[in-house]
Design brief:
12% of the residues are buried. By secondary structure, the chain is mainly alpha-helical. α3 packs across α4.
Length: 80
């Protein structure tokens, strides 16, 4: 049976995962390769498909933003 999280818990989990993935390159690579398995392993709980997909979307969006921002900052650095 899958566990279920409320909106606040889901948001908190997303923030926790984003911090882990942005600080651990191997974990981030595992997430990008197989997001469902990585989230379930990292969280240690089995979430309903709807919630796991929401978490994947939230985390991918933030990781993408962080990656894009760091690349943009590097490019700006060339012009200083």
């Amino acid at each position: 049976m899958a566990d279920s999280l409320n909106v606040e818990q889901l948001t908190a989990k997303a923030e926790e995962l984003i911090k882990k993935f942005t600080s651990d390159g191997d974990l981030k690579a595992a997430f990008l390769k197989d997001p469902v398995a990585t989230l379930e392993k990292t969280l240690g709980i089995d979430l309903p498909d709807e919630q796991i997909n929401q978490l994947i979307s939230l985390v991918q969006e933030k990781i993408g933003e962080a990656g894009a921002k760091s690349i943009l900052d590097k490019v700006k650095g060339f012009f200083k």
